[in-house]
Amino acid sequence: MPVLLAVVVAGMSVQAQSRPPRKPPARPAAKAAPVPLKTITPEVKCPSLIGMGIQTVRSFCDIPAGREAAQGIVITLPPHTGPGTLTFDLHARHVYSEDEMKRGKAYARYRAVVGVLTMTGELLDRGAVDAEFRSATDLFDRIGGGAGPGSLKAVAPAGREQVVITVPAAVQQVSLLGETLDAVTPAGHETAVMPGRPVAIVSNLLFEYRPAPVRR
Question: What CATH number labels 42-204?
Answer without folding.
Answer: 2.60.120
